[in-house]
Amino acid sequence: MASxxxxxxxxxxxxIYAQRLGEWMTNAPQIEEDMALGNIAxxxxxxxxxxxxxxxxxxxxxxxxxxxxxxxxEREFRNVHLxxxxxxxxxxxxxxxxxFSAYQVELHRSLSGATDEVVRGVGQKAVKEVRxxxxxxxxxxxxxxxxxDESHRRMQAALDWVxxxxxxxxxxxxxxxxxxxxxxxxxxxxASLRPAVxxxxxxxxxQATLTMPDPPAWRSRGGRDGIHSRPxxxxxxxxxxxxxxxxxxxx
Amino acid sequence: xxxxxGMRVVVGVLMVGCAGRGIHPGILSGARQAATVPGVVxxxxxxxxxxxxxxxxxxxxxxxxxxxxxxxxxxxxEGTDDGVASLSPAGRREQAATDLAAFDALIAADQRIEPRxxxxxxxxxxxxxxxxxHAHSEIIGMQPEGxxxxxxxxxxxxxxxxxxxxxxxxxxLYLYSAAETLGIDRQELLERLHDGKQRYSSIFNYxxxxxxxxxxxxxxxxxxxxxxxVPLCRCSYGPYARAMIRVCKEESFHQxxxxxxxxxxxxxxxxxxxxxxxxxxRWWWPALAMFGPPDTGDAAAGPTSGxxxxxxxxxxxxxxxxxxxxxxxxxxxxxxxxxxxLTLPDPDLRWNEERGHWDFxxxxxxxxxxxxxxxxxxxxERIAHRRRAHDDGAWVREAxxxxxxxxxxxxxxxxA
Lengths: 251, 416
Fold this sequence. Notes:
The structure holds 2 protein chains of 2 kinds. By secondary structure, chain A is mostly helical. Helix content of chain A is about 65%, strand content about 0%. Chain A is built from 10 helices and no strands. In chain A, helix 1 (about 1-20) runs antiparallel to helix 2. The mean pLDDT of chain A is about 95. Chain B is mostly helical. Helices cover about 55% and strands about 0% of the residues of chain B. Chain B contains 17 helices and 2 strands. A two-stranded antiparallel ribbon of chain B has the order 1-2. In chain B, a hairpin with a 4-residue loop joins strand 1 (about 350) and strand 2 (about 355-360). Chain B starts with about 25 loop residues before the first helix and ends with a helix. The chains are: A mainly alpha, B mainly alpha. Chains A and B meet through helix 1, helix 2, helix 3, helix 6 and helix 7 of A and helix 7, helix 8, helix 11, helix 16 and helix 17 of B.
């Protein structure tokens, strides 16, 4: 059953980040970027929608995608703090996307080898998509780092801003360790994904004439146990408001 | 099967500072080819869309997909939608028209004017204004529905809504590029929008108050837009006509999605039904106003009437009178409202056996002119939102240009 709980965390990461990225539409620096960020949001939403019903199968509750997305409480969401943080400036979004997409490339590469057929399918499809997300983030981080003085300053500040949220992605919590031991969801624990992700991010940062931040004084914890940061409650209020206002309705 | 959601865009490719340089060859050439979005290289991702774009997630099977639901589907059903074929007949002259006599001859022969052709300055300006207004409408039109992305009541609806707003952005880009073929760049057009010197469709000055408004916008607003736009697929200006073919196809899906939102609500709880009816009440008249003021009578007086319309007709930019299109829209939409179980807020609405058309009441043209002049519920908000996004993004665009210049210098130095 660890597998179901583990997959729920992955689905929640995808959903909550899709929700944040969706906020960019009509607010992006240029129209192409409205489309691009919307596209990434759609891909992530697709991952979540494929995983949720499978979690419902595995945990025996038979819950569907909207049961998971619309009718759970904050304490039941298992996403990392990184994805729930409020939308900042464009540099912050690109710093977050750089880490998250680099992580997802490794994650889905790992899931592509899962024995669970649904998980394998999600991984094989998503790995192609998230490579584009990574490419997009890398291009922007380099443009902004190696652009104007202002963009350099903002991009550096953004890397510093995102740093405390990075470690949580790679925590080998008991659930993910047990899930990997069960063997149906791939063979790589979160911690084992880190070196490859770190390498990609460092390469991009250096190409962007930026520097990796010093180890942050604090780091986020608890997302996988349903302990979230302040913005999460507001995010869920917005996400769930209509669905919860009409109990039992079909949309 | 109704499963297509607009365009998919490769996110890794982005053209910066594309003023005058982002014109995709597809829009310039008279050749028959699939339309593409300029500034963004469209590519089908291998395997993309399998999860998020399956029929189960996007399609709907509650409505007969074979029955035309809007003007674009009607044209397809009647086989009158082959705009492309008539745009570039095989025998089209080799040389560009070099003088205005040639322009007149092309118009007389119902041929397409291409960017290289000579054209009267007024024709050029009329088209720039019309295409820009259309592009601005797509961009401003992202806001009323974009407002609901974070609140969509199900994940399926959220995905459809994101894809739709994305399509609108794509249409805007595509149309700006069509305008650029007339010698103006997007940057300047956006400035005119932001400064209030060019308009967008006044319909977007109304607010989206409930979830059902997303249904009403798709069904009525997109339905009306398609009615206006299908004739533009045969517009005399080639790049605009070609852009409209793609736009109409995608709008057609949006209209169906809107209909399906309302269909679902009308089969839902009492409060869902009330929500749908309320949305239909609020959007019906503004949708009828989208066809513009009447062609004749007291209300016809206005900045876009009279000789202006006649000239656009003569130039093959406009094909039908406002009232004619409005009647067609009413005739097509009333039976759909009946099917949905919605009442339309017009006591004068009744079938006229003699005319073979639906009679309907008068649009409140005072309200129309008032909103058009700036005194609508959302005029200020729409422009302020758009300007804020643009201004907040200025440093990003500057950085991208600066980086591109640096990269170019480095490339030149390493080549030397």
